[in-house]
Amino acid sequence: MQLVSVWSPKGGSGKTTLALHLAGAMVARGVSVLLVDLDPQWSAKLISETGSLPFSVLPGWPTSEPKVDVIVADYAPGYSEAPEVGTVVVPMQPSPLDMNSAMRALEVLRRSEGLKVIRVLNMVDLREIEQRDLAAYCLRQREVEKIVKRRSVYRRSLGAGHTVHSAEASTLHGAREAKGEVDALLDMIL
Question: What is the number of other CB atoms lying within 10 angstroms of the CB of residue 184?
Answer without folding.
Answer: 13
